[in-house]
Amino acid sequence: MTYDGIDGSDGPGGSDSSGGSDGIEWRLAEVAAGRADRDAVDRWAGRMLLDDERRWDETSLWALNLLYGIDLRHGPGEPYPYLHDEEQVGEWLAEYRRRRAQG
Questions:
Q1: What 3-state DSSP class applies to 2?
Q2: Which residue(s) pair with 73 in the sheet?
Q3: Own/partner pairs, 89-97, CB within 8 angstroms, 24+ separation
Q4: SS3 assignment for 4-44
Q5: φ, ψ for residue 5, nearest 5 deg
Q6: In this predicted structure, what is the pLDDT of residue 19?
Q7: What are the tens digits of pLDDT across the range 1-12?
């Protein structure tokens, strides 16, 4: 199932007014599982990064910068449509969780 409303109210931290680490982790997991609308995740991450009212810790900023651009595609004729496949995003998710656990 694809979550077209991933930047809406679906899931933890799903609304625009609620970002935070839960929203970041949820989006990484959804992309890694192939269930996310990558364009929506990219737009959400861009809004979070550009919001002057928010202050992000280093780990969240690292992950948001990965998500902002998650919809980048390979050139024509490439076997996989996206520059970063689900396996790579899964590795980012594991690293994000590791960093969060370390505090």
A1: coil
A2: 82
A3: 89/28, 89/31, 89/32, 90/32, 92/28, 92/32, 92/63, 92/66, 93/25, 93/28, 93/29, 93/32, 96/24, 96/25, 96/28, 96/59, 96/62, 96/63, 97/25
A4: CCCCCCCCCCCCCCCCHHHHHHHHHHHHHCCCECHHHHHHH
A5: -95, 30
A6: 64
A7: 344 444 444 455
Q: What type of residue is 35? A: R
Buried b or exposed e, range 22-54, using 16+ CB within 10 angstroms: ebbbbbbbbbbeeebbbebbbbbbeebbeeeee
Q: Distance between the two ends of the chain, CA-based, in angstroms?
A: 33
What's this model's pTM, rounded to 2 decimal places?
0.81
Q: What is the pLDDT of residues 10-23, one digit of tens each?
A: 455 444 444 678 89
pLDDT in tens, 72-100: 998 887 778 899 999 999 999 999 999 99
